[in-house]
Amino acid sequence: MSAKKTDDKQAKLNVNEQSDAKKELIELGKSIVQDINKANNPKIELSVRGLSNVVYDKQSKTLQLGDKTAQRFFFNAGHSKKFLQTIEVAAICKNLLDVNKHASLRDVFYMAKRTIPNTKINVVDDQKESDKSIEDLEIITGFSRENLNVNANKMGSVAGKVVIEDSGDTIDWSKLGSGGWSIPSNVENIKFKKVDAKYVIYMEKAAVWERLHEDRFWEKQNCIIMSSQGQTTRGIRRLLQRLSTEHNLPILVLTDFDSWGHYIYSVMKFGSISLAHMADEMSIPSAKFLGIRAHDIEKYGLQKHFIKLNDQDISRLKQISEYDWFKNSKEWQAEFKKMKQFGHKAEIQALSARGISFISETYLPEKIKNKDWIE
Questions:
Q1: What percent of the residues of the chain are helix, what percent strand, and what percent coil, each to the nearest 5?
Q2: CATH 3.40.1360.10, applies to 157-369
Q3: Of 140, 137, 131, nearest to 45 (Cα)?
């Protein structure tokens, strides 16, 4: 299928999804009204969101929500406030879809934050409450918050020989100066006009991205480079998934040699426990872990730049080593075992000790040429 046909199809899907999302919100409202008209206790039914209801699907290699459901009742002291918060946020999302405008997570918080008449109680007191309500609506409606016209903050950069259309503007990722293109939280409506790349490298460190960008790594290696600062945003994960599924680009993940870096990779490849209901849109089962790996430590003499594992590092290492999707992998267990033996972790930037451009001129080209990654 041509790029234009793919983009046209994607645009139609996005319009339909927003229309269907609105219908689901209307149905939610109707179900509450029906309960009231029948003199029943108004209720909301949704899947249980938590570790107890998350399963690892070995066939799709993603985390999925299980079959457990729960009901939330208005006339229940333990449920009533969350019930009201969910309905209030649902009304806000319905209004956003009606006027075809987008709001940030922070905007939604302030739109919901008001005092209930004749009380001293606020609908929401903290943004975490409105954020949780949005996640509940994702489960109830089956649509992402992006389809509900709610966006998060921008926290990522990308560069490469790619041309896109975003809100009517044509943007060339190869011609945006030192900062690259700032990745928005909602990438559903982006149309790919041209994609000329062999693969995508995602890195957790913005500083590493800046080094590769300044060295024009993406141009020399004909690839796309992308980063955030730490844990990936939903916008980045969705953009990576679209590049993987729509353009068949391999996704290579570059993180520190520590349990937190391994967790970042886990979330990108398999999905996260908190967003298991979004696995189909967020996970990238074909993603490969590029490094830093245990044998890189010895090969490039990074021991002198070790950072001692603290109690949190050790606890996280133990936790991820017992994940179902890691515990049966000999390669991953070997990585975890080595880290325990070292008793230390190492940052990607430690490679700079061998030369400011060592990572772009030697380390990455060699690893990619040798396919030195974990599937």
A1: 50, 20, 35
A2: yes
A3: 140
Q: Where in the chain is CATH 3.40.1360.10? A: 157-369
Query: How many whole angstroms separate alpha carbon 245 and alpha carbon 112?
Result: 36
Using CA atoms, how far residue 173 sits from 192, 211, 240, in Å, is 11, 17, 15
| 191 phi/psi in degrees, rounded to 5 | -110, 125
In this structure, which CATH number among 3.30.420.270, 3.40.50.720, 3.30.70.20, 1.10.10.10 belongs to the domain 3-41+76-151?
A: 1.10.10.10
Catalytically annotated residue among 110, 202, 300, 323: 110
* DSSP symbol at 26: H
As a whole number of angstroms, the distance between CA 99 and CA 211 comes to 42
Tens-digit pLDDT profile for residues 55-114? 988 888 888 889 999 999 999 999 999 999 999 999 999 999 999 988 889 999 999 998
Above pLDDT 90, what percent of the chain? 75
Provide the sign of the torsion angle of the four alpha carbons 207, 211, 213, 214, taken in this order. Answer: positive
For residue 131 the two structure tokens come to: 């954020």
- Strand 157-159 with 43-47, pairing: unpaired
Is 110 part of the annotated catalytic residue set? yes
Q: What are the structure tokens assigned to 351, written together? A: 């490679």
Amino acid in the structure at residue 258: D
Give me the residue label for tokens 């690892």: 56
- Helix/strand/coil for 77: coil
> One-letter amino acid identity for 19?
S
Q: Which of 35, 134, 33 is nearest to 82 (CA)?
A: 134
Confidence (pTM): 0.81
Cis peptide before 292 (omega within 30 of 0): yes
All CATH 1.10.10.10 domain ranges of the chain, comma separated, are 3-41+76-151
H or E element in which residue 97 lies: helix 80-99
